[in-house]
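@channel sequence for tomorrow's demo:
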Amino acid sequence: MTAPAPIPPRVLTVAGSDSGGGAGIQADLKTMLALGTHGMSVLTAVTAQNSLGVQGAWELPADAVRAQYRSVVDDIGVQAVKTGMLSSAALVDTVAELLAGTGAPVVVDPVGVSKHGDALLAAEALDSVRTKLLPVATVATPNLDEVAQLTGVTVTDEPGMRTAAAEILGYGPRWVVIKGGHLPGEAVDLLTDGSEEHWLRAPRLDNRHTHGTGCTLASAIACGLARGQDVPTAVRGAKEYVTGAIRAGFALGGGIGPVDHGWLTRTAG
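structure tokens (generated this afternoon):
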């Protein structure tokens, strides 16, 4: 008699769709598959999006988001949740309430703008992110633009990343990753819980095709947490995965192409 197949760790993404396939729900699910987990999704918004930018975005009703979430969590269960584009205060409030009652580690990517500078979060939703979403986060992963949106802190160097981390931690997440990819020099991120500090460095890669890096990093962290890793181990592994994906990023369309979520498989082959 054949033994039943082992069940992979289950990871849920709550995010928007990227029709071009480089970021959002599509990037999350690709990452989850690449890292050996079972990815599930709660769609919050639909975007018309390609390598040139976002041409349109349509938010789903809060009831539709709640129904998707309950459908997955109540039947299948989750071992980690990742959030991305939530677009409005109503959706931020809804998702934060759902996360608070779930009991799984949560990675919050506080998506504010797209790679092309398109707004993906209403200005009036920022306070809900600060007061409701960040307090339920195990790890928050803002980039420097999102740090400025949330805290007013403009980061121009590594000491500024430490200041930004303290500001974000003040909103309640257990850990924060300040992503310093927009600074010159090495691609450096700061992971801290306010007492431990981990500076994660990678060489600056000469590849402009980096669409989806933030979604991919947050999803990869969630995969590590779903596997039972501690936060520093999960973040370190996610950084290595994203660095490889950026190195293998490829051109699509006439603008910024995506990172290669399948680079591990292609390298192994």
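heads up for whoever presents: Strands lie at 10-18, 38-50, 53-59, 80-83, 106-108, 139-140, 175-179, 187-192, 197-202.
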